[in-house]
Structures are given as C-alpha cells and as structure tokens.
Amino acid sequence: MSLFLEMNNISKTFPGVKALDRVDLRLNRGEVHALAGENGAGKSTLMKIMTGVYRADPGGSIIVEGEEVTIHDPVHARSLGISIIYQELAVVNNLTVAENIFLAREPRGPSGLLNTRKMKADARAVLEELEMDIEPGAMVGRLSMGQKQMVEIARAISYDSKLIVMDEPTASLSHHETRTLIRMVKRLASQGIGIVYISHRLDEIFEIADRVTVLRDGATVDTQPIEAMTRDRLVMKMVARELSELFGDHLSYATEEVLMSVRGLSLKRPTMQGARVSDVSFDLRRGEILGFFGLVGAGRTEVMEMIFGSRPYTGEITIDGQRAEIHDPSTAIAHGIGFVTEDRQGQGLVLGMNVRENFSLTHLKDYCSFDFVRRREEKARCIDYIKSLSIKTPGTEQKVMNLSGGNQQKVVIAKWVARRPRILIVDEPTRGIDIGAKAEVHTLLNELAREGLSIIVVSSDLPEILAISDRIIVLKEGRVSGELSRDEATQEVVMHAATG
Amino acid sequence: MNGTDTMEAAEHRDGLLAKIAELRHVREFNVLLALLLVGFLISLATPYFLTTNNLMGVFRAFSLTAIMSIGMVMVIITGGIDLSVGSAMGLASLVTALAFEAGFPTGAAIGAGLATGLAFGLTNGLLITAIGLPPFIATLGTLSIGRGLMYMITHGVPVTPDTPEVFSVLGQGYIGPVPVPVVIMLALMTFFAIIMLRTRFGRHVYATGGNEQAARLSGVKVGRVKLTVYVLSSTIASLAGVIGFSRYLSAEPASGFGSELDVIAAAAIGGASLAGGIGSVTGAVIGAALVGVIANGVVLLNINTYAQQAITGGVILIAVSLDVLRNRLSGGGN
User: Which residues of chain B are within 8 Å of residue A342 when distances are taken between CB atoms?
Assistant: First the structure.
C-alpha cells in the first residue's frame, strides 16, 4: 500500500483553545484507517482541516501524493480526491438520487438546459458499479438512512475520490444497513480507495480497520496496525483510564411492584416511514431498568412516542393501577413520564437557549409564583444539577449549542430528572457520545433506578442494552418477539429474537 | 473539574463593570446605539431636532407603529408572522367610529374596537393552530378580508361621528409634555418586556420559536402559546386603531393599509429573527423609533420626502446585515 496523504505537525488554535497540537497522520491508498478518540479529542477538527473547512496554524504541512498543498476549501479538497461524508448527511430530500449525485455539476445540453437523461444514465452507471440497489429517479426523502448514505458514497465515487472520510457512518443505521455499509467500505478499500473511519463503536473499528490512530486532547497518542491493538488498550489510550474503571458493576434495584402496564398498544396508522406497531404489551416495575431492543424500523421509538402521547394509538396504558388517558406530551408528563428523545438537537433541546432555560423548560412551574419565574431559585437548582451530573459548561448561561454531545445529553437528562418523573424513557441515550460520557450516563441511570425511578432504555447498541438492563423486551416488525431476563440475555439470543 | 470552578467565578462576578460589559451582548443595545448615533448626526445638522416640540412630535408619529410592533415581535419570536395587523388596526378604528355613530358611550365604543381585534386574532390563531395553515397564508387571508370588509362597510367614504371630548384624550392629549399615545406605548413596552423576560408564558414563547418540537415534548402547550400571541398581536393592533381614530376622529376606509410592513421592519431592525426564537419587545420599539427618527431627519434636512422610503429600506438592510455579521464573527459554535 502506498502513501496517499500525509499531515505533519498540524496544529489548530481557536480563540482560547488549542484544538490540535502537532498532530501527524499518514493515510495509505486502499487502507481503512480508523480515527478514535473521545468527543473533543480533535477528530472533527483534523478532518475539517483535511477537507479544507478550516486552515491549520502555520508550521504544519499537508502532502497529497508527494506534493505539498494548501487546501483552500472543500471544493479544492474534492479536486484533490478527498471527500467527506458527515454524520448529518448532506443530501437534499426533495431531489432525486441522480440529482443529488450530480448536485452543483449537473450535466447540461447545448441549450443550457439540464440533460436529465444523461444525468440519470451516469447516476445509474455509478450505482451499478457499486452494486447499489437504488433507483436513480427515486426521491431521496423516501430512502432509508442507510440508502441515503449509499447515495453520498456514490456521489463521492463519482467525484473520483481517492480518500473518503466517514464521520460516525453507522450512528443512525440499522443492523442490516450497518452490515451493508461495512461490506461497501471493504469493497472500496479493495479498489484502492482510502477510508478514514471515525466511529465510537469499537466493534466496527476492530472489524474493518487496517490501522488505527488515537487522538486525545488534540494530540496524536498512537498509530498502530489493528492486529497490534486490543479493545482494552484502545479504550485506555482514548481515555487514559481502564475500561473496568469506567463501567461499574450492574446492580439491580427492580422491585416486584408493577408501576405501568401497557396492553395491546397499536399504532393508529403506519408512520410515514411505513413502521407499524401492533399489540405491544408489557409491564414496567418500580426501580427497574427495562431495555427495549429491535432493529431500525422495528417500532421501538414509535412505542415510546405512543406512551408519551406524541403519536395516536389504540390500546391501554395503566399507571399505578389507574387507566391513563394520554393524548399529548403534557398529559404524559402530568402522569409522571419523562422522555429523553433520540434526536437530542431536533427534539430534546432548544439550541438557541442557554443551559438554565433548557433545564427548567419541563418544570418551570416549580419556580413560578403567578407565572413569574423566580430566577435565582431556577439558577440555583440548575447549578445543583450541573454539579451532580458533572455537566461540563462554563455556566448556566451558556448556550447549549456550544456544549459537546455528551454534555448536551446530560442537560436533556437533567431537565427530566429535575421534574421528578416516576417513569423515564430514554431513547438512544448514548448515541454519538464518547465512551467516557457513555459510562457516566450508564452510572447515572443506575443511580436513578436506585432512587426508585422506573426507566425504559431504548437502544440499537446491543452491548449497551445488555450492560444496563434488568430485563429486555425485543421488538420485531412492530410486535414483541421476545422478553428476556438479564440472565437469559446474550448477544446471540437477543439478536435471534430481533431478526429470527 | 475546572469547569465548575470557572462557572462559580462567573456566577459571582456580578460587578457593575461586568454588567456593562455584558450589555454589549444584548441585541437591543446595538439598535439603541444606532438610534443615538443617528439622532446625534441629525442634531448636528439642525438644532431644531432636539427641541421638545419636535421630539415629542417624532415620538407620537412612530408610537402607533411601535405599539403594533410589540405584538408583532411576540408573534415573530414564536416563528410566525402576522400580516394582518394593518387590517386589524383599520377595522378596529372603523368599528369604534361606527359604535360612536350608533350612540355607544365612550367605554363601549373602545371596547367594540378592541373586541374586533380580539376576534381577528382568534381567527388567525385558530386558522394556524387548529387547521394548521402557515401563518403567512392565514394572516394574508385575513388581511385581505379585513380590507374588503372596510370598503364594503364604508363604500369608500370616511366615517366621522360625533365623539365626546374625553375620547380625544387618547390620541390628542398630553401628560405633561408627553403625548398620551407615547405614554401608552411606553407602558405597553414595559409591561410586555416584563412578561417576555420574567414569566413562564414569555419563556414558552421563546422556546416555541426556538424549537417547537422540543418545546412540545417538554410539555409546553405550543398551540395555546401560538393562539395567545396572535390574539395579543391583533388586540394590540386594534388598540393602535382606536388611538389613531381618537387622533383624527375620522375612520378612513384605507386606514392601516400597508402598515404591517413598517411593523415587521421595526421588529427586524430591533433584532428579531424571522426564523423564530430571537427578538425582544424593547428592541422592536427601538427599531420603530429608529425608522421614525430617520423619517423626521429626512423632513428636517429637506431631503426629498420620496427618498424616505428608500432610506428606510436601506436602514433595514444595514441593521439586519450588521446583526448577522456580528453573530457570524462572534462564532455561533460550529
């Protein structure tokens, strides 16, 4: 494998922060190179420098195919053969697959009008070459997350990319789609295309990477062939702590007392994505952490949305022996339910508001006399929670958009915990956050259960579900396909119930 | 955990200097600076500008736009828009005039005007929350209906009823040197600024515009919040209509037409973002003041009055551009 790109002595200073400190990175042709590190370690900044979004501080150099270059902007990077696929996919939903692939360089006829026929044919050629089963004329908005990602890959390939950066590519993919993506990555590498693979999922790194570079606090810690690395050593390099220190033992605080029972819960109509849920029944006990597992599209989130009143349902929800009539989030909240949504930024937080305002939004009434907010009290309470959840923020008045993903997640959890719910639903609680913050979230959920809270954890991260749950309910195609105690549940058994 | 340490330091740094330094980050502060600067420049050019007489005239001239901008900015903060304020204003002045004509006592006539605004706002709010129309369309529709009704009722002829002396105080009176409409404007500004900054309702308005989905899932009754701001906007506009009628004692068939654009401009100059979540009541009033002062300057400096609209347009573009650039420079995260 020959060297394609070299980054030497790269530093990047933002006002008041040194984001990168003399980082070196060497990427070969046809190599899958994993980039590992906690949030804030500098992975994104490094990739933004490589793709021309940021300019590095003077003193470093970038060498592409033996020649030193200054990368001006993303378009320039692309002309050098460097493409990036962001976690938040950059596709336009109301255009077709072909239109997306050729966005901003649409083939035109002699008249200056679009040559849609050529565009479709060219798109089809790329898709077929990559053996992707996607119609060039399909609306991208109707595709699944995994298919949208494939469209982005096809676009990168149509640019003749020699290096493709993938930032958390599997964060929102189903199990099946993840497998497809991994096959695609291997295939691209075998064709001589270099891949930079950024992922919090260590299993994936070990499965596909040839080499791994670890960043910590903006500096390169190590670059190793993957064979020379173990899971524990990788984590230790990332966080400079032992894995066992991070994740404490699981303790169960589940009681026998049923707090909520759900009977025959069904979606009134299928969702836009076509998900169905029918006849879901289960009990939730006091102090229990109940895991909900299922592949993407199995209806996990939909079940939670019905319980929280943000989706119409039929069926019965009983809380504390009383039938609960829940038709909107505020009635659900009044019944003592809290919902930490999957989409932190879209549904969990008001990004333009500060930590205090986001924190108190669920329980502002607690600080109100005649609708007037007692701000001192609101702030004091917020500071208490910042401390007890160790949220890293300069203060209560910091806008939440400036916090890291892990800390944003803690703010969402804080706003619900402060409302003192009896039932807390957490949907994908650790998606896209680093392993240190993940461990803290797990510990926190465990402590809440100890205080008698009943928690439902929804996750597509199977090891997470197994690590944290007292009991696991598996959904498949909108129905309960398995209910397993902690002792029965193994990766194989759960996966079998979810797919079998 | 140096995060918590610096945080506590920041919480306790409540000195006066720090407070002043913080002012720079308050959006209204920049509009206020612009207002003072423009005022200063005009006063250099003509000494007449800073006379009590002139200033009070200027204040009274923009007070109705400013009053309406208070309601408008709350709508804009929820992420909506109210194009119908001009019609609500005009219709309210007409209904008040008709009420006087029908022999209503002063209180009832004013009440009838305000009730018109209330009904207008309820219609807007229900179209938007219950039926789910986009605010732009819903209020565009009611704007047109309002105008049509006014022509149908008046047949194009102004309504000029006899009114009791006491009613004229609203539009023509003074408290000391200050015109009554200006006093009403300042009172409303103070009242709604406190509502927006200190109450749960205000917080919910900001949250709704900042992220409606997150607000709803946090238990905010988003529909009720929206309905309320549209009702407030129309009712406040109808108050402006009643005051306007009291000033001229004639309800013109075309009164209030086109004023929605001035009102939206005031809110935008005052720092409100049409995307929602951002803006303030004081900012909107200062924005209206800036436009009013410029209009006055144009007259005093003998600049072609036709140029006034063009200048106002320029001010909108400059003010909002500066705001956008400033936000970009201060790095709104990544």
Answer: none
